[in-house]
Amino acid sequence: MFRNQYDTDVTTWSPAGRLFQVEYAMEAVKQGSAAVGLRSKTHAVLGAVNKAASDLASHQRKLFRADQHVGVAIAGLTADGRVLSRFLRNECINHSFVYESPLPVSRLVVQLADKAQVCTQRSWKRPFGVGLLVAGLDETGAHLYYNCPSGNYFEYQAFAIGSRSQAAKTFLERRFQEYDTYSREDLIKDALFAIKETLQGEKLTAQLCTVAIVGEGEAFHIIDQQTIQEYIDAMELSTGGPDEEAAAAAPPSAETQEGGEGASSEPAPMDI
Amino acid sequence: MELQLSMVDGSVCMKDSAKSEISSERTLYPYVTGTSIIGMKYKDGVILASDTAGSYGSTLRYKSVERIKQVGDHTLIGASGEISDFQEIMRYLDELILYDKMWDDGNSLGPKEVHNYLNRIMYNRRNKFNPLWNSLVLGGVKKGQKYLGTVNMIGTHYEDDHLATGFGNHLARPILRSEWREDLTFEEAVKLIEKCLLVLLYRDRSSINKFQIAKITDEGTTIFPPYALKTFWGFSHFQNPSKGAAGTW
């Protein structure tokens, strides 16, 4: 995309019928580090890559809990993401207070999308520069939504956003049709594998990623590093993929444990 | 019935003299009232029952007041107390259900949510010294889960397997406490309810012999047309009442 005379403010249409500021905001999402989400009928999993600005710094938080039954993963301007997470928490708790009952995920994402839309139609505002993967469970089952800076939202079985997310999406496209009946463990493994796809060469360790899960009988929570490392180790012990049948057609799964930089020699980033 | 909140009067007077001649718009006492509601869970769902009387003080003024209404697909509400406040509550609840339906997204408000919403309204009004002068029973079934709760004008709310308002608490609940079971069929439940309604008819002066029963199950709601119960007044004590004191009435 190149600069033009119609891209200065969000309330100016281009002659081709585009709002460039909104599109530039979606670019910001693509620059953020990757986040993935997948769901079965009863569980939804979110995963994110923890990229620290430098070896001295800790990584930014990308997974937020909005309520017992909903959480989000963000990609893009993390500051915008934090503000929206606070909004989501507020909406959830307001609903719980009045109705003593969890806010249905589909209604939460509509409220979020409406908030994003407002910023595309006020001259004194700018669109939020963050994409959100909202994962939650309500009485209609587990759900995964993607909320855009444009104010659009879509429901997904599995999705990935952020930089190098295309690799994860390619992986998920091959597998998503089975996800409805996946067990909780298989969902986590596939999420980790999708994250690994976005790393493109780097060795996947529990320090490089964060995974959270929500499901029936399980409140939204971030899975601790040790359990994640165990999942990763279990995955790499098999034929390079999260299950045996993927061995035939999995191109990047040929990585061995020796590939990439030795992660154990890096200074450990701060714990979540 | 003629309860007066004297501390409210005091503060209202002070405010009035400071403002203008606008009179108070707070609820001070009820005018047209309904008496008890009885509710109980049974095997397939929940039953609510009431009479159809609207009393104006001690006068049995209105005899066809529907005090049990449907709220959305999953809930029934029965009200005792000020009838006009019940109508106001129905306006709030109908609007709530309407907006819920407008989402059209597969989610719907169940009896628990409606109960809590109503509790918020009742408690907030009470805090402003302007209560909706009602005691309400909410019953419903959603996805096989039976729910029965009550909320009143001061915001007290709780759930139970069987509930009543007003005189029903004193006359009907003891019967229910000893004879209610989890697995009552509809016919058995109606018999038990009628036993309670009869006691209320005999002993509550604001009740009339015209009752409505409503049931709600996962399949849906039915509010039955009003009917009367057989009463018996042939007790020997009622024969020749002026025997001991001629000229009495």
Automatic annotation (TrEMBL), chain A:
Annotated spans, Disordered: 239-272
One of the GO biological process terms: ubiquitin-dependent protein catabolic process
Recorded GO CC terms: cytoplasm; nucleus; proteasome core complex, alpha-subunit complex
Domain named Proteasome alpha-type subunits: residues: 6-28
Gene3D superfamilies to which the protein is assigned, alphabetical: Glutamine Phosphoribosylpyrophosphate, subunit 1, domain 1
SUPFAM superfamilies attached to this UniProt entry: N-terminal nucleophile aminohydrolases (Ntn hydrolases)
Keyword Amino-acid biosynthesis: no
Cellular compartments annotated: Cytoplasm; Nucleus
Keywords: Cytoplasm, Nucleus, Proteasome
Assembly and oligomerization: The 26S proteasome consists of a 20S proteasome core and two 19S regulatory subunits. The 20S proteasome core is composed of 28 subunits that are arranged in four stacked rings, resulting in a barrel-shaped structure. The two end rings are each formed by seven alpha subunits, and the two central rings are each formed by seven beta subunits. The catalytic chamber with the active sites is on the inside of the barrel.
Family: Belongs to the peptidase T1A family.
Functional summary from the UniProt entry: The proteasome is a multicatalytic proteinase complex which is characterized by its ability to cleave peptides with Arg, Phe, Tyr, Leu, and Glu adjacent to the leaving group at neutral or slightly basic pH. The proteasome has an ATP-dependent proteolytic activity.
Protein name: Proteasome subunit alpha type
Organism field: Rhynchospora pubera
Source organism phylogeny: Eukaryota, Viridiplantae, Streptophyta, Embryophyta, Tracheophyta
Automatic annotation (TrEMBL), chain B:
CDD domains membership: proteasome_beta_type_4
UniProt KW Nuclease keyword: no
This protein's record includes keyword Cytoplasm: yes
Main location: cytoplasm
Keywords for the protein's UniProt record, in alphabetical order: Cytoplasm, Nucleus, Proteasome
Xref: Pfam families: Proteasome
N-terminal signal peptide: none
GO terms under biological process: proteolysis involved in protein catabolic process
GO cellular component: cytoplasm; nucleus; proteasome core complex, beta-subunit complex
Subcellular location(s) per record: Cytoplasm; Nucleus
Function: Non-catalytic component of the proteasome.
Family that this chain belongs to: Belongs to the peptidase T1B family.
Subunit architecture: The 26S proteasome consists of a 20S proteasome core and two 19S regulatory subunits. The 20S proteasome core is composed of 28 subunits that are arranged in four stacked rings, resulting in a barrel-shaped structure. The two end rings are each formed by seven alpha subunits, and the two central rings are each formed by seven beta subunits. The catalytic chamber with the active sites is on the inside of the barrel.
Protein name, UniProt field: Proteasome subunit beta
Organism: Rhynchospora pubera
